[in-house]
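Batch manifest, entry 17 of 40.
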Amino acid sequence: MQLLLQTMCILLTLEKTFCFLKPKTRNPEANMNVSEVISYWGYPSEEYEVVTEDGYILSINRIPFGKNDFSNSAPKPVVYLQHGYILTSGSWVANLPNNSLGFLLADAGYDVWMGNSRGNIYARKHVYMDPNSKEFWAFSHDQIIKYDLPATIDFILQKTGQKQLYYVGHSQGTLIAFGAFSANQQLAQKIKLYFALAPVCTGKYITSSLRLFAFIPPTMFKILFGEKDFLSPSQAKYIGQFICQNELVGTICNNMLTLLFGYNTKNLNESRIDVYLGQCPAGTSVQIMLHYSQLADKGTLQAYDWGSPRLNMQHYNQTTPPFYKVENMKVPTVMWSGRRDTLADPKDVANLEPNISNLVYYKWIPDYNHVDFAIGLDAFHQVFSEILSFINEDQSH
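Output type: structure tokens
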């Protein structure tokens, strides 16, 4: 925790030091929402709202076809992309079209959908709860697994008339998939292939500075960060607009990402940091971070621990949180991980691998960190081209 706070203090000090320089927005997409980014590059853009069973309203984005395919209205295979921790659907269109998975899939002839998990900047509405209330923020990974993912996938399949789709998850997008596809067999049957990028299942061996959160007692954590949102949009805007867009401190931002996600600075396009920071950090709940800390502390994939046998009994009818049993997941799975990933540590991934009963393919990339799988300069060659090959091959059968 001290290391993280020290880093933030350095950034704030630099901002004050160079305040006489006006921050420069290099890219117009930095101030756009996801729909606007898609349209900016000449692609068709659609946006929908999904209402979950417990009343959360989630915005989802769609690229129904490629940039040069406007005349083709025939139904297309569906690919669904789910973002990682404190990110948004915008992470899939944050790079240039030739290196953004959302655009690449659309140009390859697929119907692309991109989801948002409750709590980020595009999923902060509810049927009746006030987003400023503590009740709104009382959710962990369990609710995303139980409500968000099934509601979103069912909405997409109903809208497109398809029976199955391809699922691509990054980071948290893999964790909720492992949980949902192992616990909900009806949902699992709707997935043709599951592509896991930087898979997170347990966090026993993570070396990211985020690991320090696991050492903070829950009561103290709530005193420090409150009981609502974590890394709010206003905080994200401050970091992005007033610090990292300055050329003099752009390298510091790169180092900050290294501290959080792992070392591979040469694979980050620093000229687009303003775009990345337009979508990240996008916020989540404090309870999500507490749940993540529990995964790191226990080294197991379990439901949220309410802190006492009595409270767990109230929520689960047992004194300990139930496990998500990944070995029960039958979905064909394709997986990529990185040796320099400090969040999806190689040791954690090695422990996960034998529990995936239908692992079709697994690639270990020596120099990859956690964010390379979404925005790395060579992500097309290392990962995206292989995703396209797997889907194309599956479609040919």
